[in-house]
């Protein structure tokens, strides 16, 4: 019980982006315009919602695989109709549908995750209080994630030793 409460609290720290909005992960959705309406930050999550069996989610490792719909080099493959992908570091990520033909019909997604508050500035000058504050918030989120993991393991350990 306590373990699940901790996990829920941890999830609440990042924003969840339901891919494609109300249309979801489908070949009729305009993913480019959906992406341009979103800001993806480290700690946020992508949620893919689709009809199980009809679609799937494969993560691609490069821009060229994304452009050519080369799903043979997939980093990861998900299915089942509802998948959550954690955005754990800044940079681009590429996804496509694994069903033959769907990627070519536009069922693919490129997103870029930004650090913290979205300014993604280099920490060269500590004079700006705004950027140092947001950096501290980021570090807190990271350490809270670790804390939650350790606490969860501790609770499990206590249950099994009770
Ligand atoms: Cu599909």
From TrEMBL:
Alphabetical list of CDD domains matching this protein = Phytocyanin
- Signal peptide, first to last residue: none
- A Pfam entry, by short name: Cu_bind_like
Report TM segments: 141-160
Q: Which UniProt keywords apply?
A: Copper, Glycoprotein, Membrane, Metal-binding, Transmembrane, Transmembrane helix
Q: Which GO terms describe its cellular component?
A: plasma membrane
Q: Where does this protein have coiled-coil stretches? A: none
Q: Which GO terms describe its molecular function?
A: electron transfer activity; metal ion binding
Whether Metal-binding counts among this entry's keywords is yes
InterPro entries, per database record: BlueCu_1_BS (IPR028871), Cupredoxin (IPR008972), Phytocyanin-like (IPR039391), Phytocyanin_dom (IPR003245)
What positions does the domain Phytocyanin occupy? 15-115
- Keyword Membrane in record: yes
Protein name per UniProt: Phytocyanin domain-containing protein
């Amino acid at each position: 019980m306590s373990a699940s409460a901790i996990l829920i609290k941890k999830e609440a720290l990042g924003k969840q982006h339901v891919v494609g909005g109300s249309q979801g992960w489908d070949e009729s959705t305009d993913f480019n315009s959906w992406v341009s309406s979103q800001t993806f930050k480290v700690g946020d999550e992508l949620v893919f919602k689709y009809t199980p069996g009809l679609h799937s989610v494969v993560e691609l490792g490069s821009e060229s695989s994304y452009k050519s719909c080369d799903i043979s080099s997939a980093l990861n493959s998900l299915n089942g109709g509802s998948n959550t992908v954690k955005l754990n570091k800044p940079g681009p990520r590429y996804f496509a549908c694994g069903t033959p033909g769907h990627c070519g019909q536009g069922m693919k997604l490129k997103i870029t995750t930004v650090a913290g508050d979205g300014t993604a500035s280099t920490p060269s000058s500590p004079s700006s209080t705004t950027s140092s504050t947001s950096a501290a918030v980021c570090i807190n989120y990271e350490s809270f994630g670790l804390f939650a993991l350790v606490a969860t393991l501790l609770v499990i350990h206590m249950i099994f030793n009770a």
